[in-house]
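Students often ask why inverse folding is considered easier than folding. One informal answer: many sequences map to the same fold, so there is more than one right answer. In these notes we will look at a single instance of the problem. The structure comes first.
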């Protein structure tokens, strides 16, 4: 074999390999990061001021379309905050609903008539008091449920995430990534779960009547014995956190909606969504400063693999020391906007409209 032929063969192999890699590589586009100052824009997240304090910033900019799917069916305008740009940046997005999942984080069915309720006289769960839980339920009915209803036919799937593992009664009650129960199984499981939840003794210990304080460190001793949040068996009774949590009664579930369980971990959730062709996630739920960001289906996980849009008025932060979640939610969403896109219910529209 000639030396020329010896040289040509490796060159052909390299060219073929390069061509194959080029075919496998995802398509790229150059994004023109041009910012146009907006004049007198209205406040953000202003549609539901009872739940979220509207966001007002000195500088607001418009950027070009970020997500631009060929077969787009949904318009999702969104914004983020940049200290370097010294303001809020808004951009339109056109996304394909068939490649989109709507996920509601931790819609716990607490104090909603299904049987699971905050223990008395001092137990804590979810937003930590019955009054605050009822406010969150009103938010679910007023803001989240209408959004889920409106989007259900325009997206690939609707999903709810729950704390803990999937109990046997869950398997028969809700569709999961593993099993879709029959109507007969669901009806029987609903009765079973109601009986299980109502059979629990929702009584814990009362607040301490006296505390032992040292002369040197009374403040340390005080908070060690009487912390601001104790969700243990002391106040909630043994077994409270071992019960199957229901999806809250304030959302209208469809039989094809999915429920995912935190104990399964993020990788199976990621792989399931990918297998369904999901590229975009519209994220709603509770609580903005805790579960919404840091649990299995929270945005800290999902934003590693999907285009995530936080619905800023379809979430509530915990609100200790206040009768309203307005300011806490504003602060939590504003902080998340440093590295996440935020939208709002009125900004998510069908392109058919």
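Output (designed amino acids):
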């Amino acid at each position: 074999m000639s030396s020329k032929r010896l040289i040509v063969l490796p060159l052909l192999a390299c060219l073929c390999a390069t061509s194959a890699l080029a075919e496998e590589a995802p398509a790229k586009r150059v994004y023109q990061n041009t910012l146009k100052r907006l004049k007198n824009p209205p406040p953000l997240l202003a549609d539901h001021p009872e739940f979220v304090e509207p966001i007002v910033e000195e500088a607001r900019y418009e950027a070009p379309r970020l997500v631009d799917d060929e077969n787009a069916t949904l318009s999702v305008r969104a914004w983020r905050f940049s200290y370097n740009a010294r303001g809020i940046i808004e951009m339109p997005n056109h996304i394909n609903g068939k490649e989109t999942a709507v996920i509601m984080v931790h819609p716990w069915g607490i104090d909603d008539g299904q049987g699971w309720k905050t223990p008395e006289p001092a137990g804590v769960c979810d937003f930590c008091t019955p009054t605050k839980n009822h406010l969150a339920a009103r938010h679910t009915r007023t803001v989240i449920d209408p959004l889920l209803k409106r989007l259900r036919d325009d997206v690939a799937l609707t999903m709810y995430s729950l704390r803990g593992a999937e109990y046997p009664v869950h398997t028969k009650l809700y569709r999961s990534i593993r099993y879709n129960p029959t109507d007969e199984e669901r009806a029987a499981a609903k009765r079973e779960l109601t009986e299980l939840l109502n059979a629990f003794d929702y009584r814990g210990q009362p607040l301490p009547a006296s505390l032992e304080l040292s002369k040197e460190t009374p403040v340390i001793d005080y908070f060690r014995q009487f912390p601001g949040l104790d969700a243990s068996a002391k106040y909630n009774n043994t077994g409270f956190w071992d019960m199957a949590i229901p999806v809250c009664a304030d959302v209208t579930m469809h039989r094809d909606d999915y429920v995912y369980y935190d104990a399964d971990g993020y990788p199976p959730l990621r792989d399931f969504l990918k297998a369904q062709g999901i590229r975009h996630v519209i994220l709603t739920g509770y609580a903005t400063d805790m579960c919404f960001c840091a649990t299995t289906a929270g945005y800290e996980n999902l934003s590693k693999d999907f285009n995530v849009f936080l619905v800023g008025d379809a979430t509530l932060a915990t609100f200790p020391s206040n009768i309203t979640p307005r300011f806490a939610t504003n602060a939590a969403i504003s902080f998340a906007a440093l590295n996440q896109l935020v939208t709002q219910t009125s900004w998510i529209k069908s392109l058919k409209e």
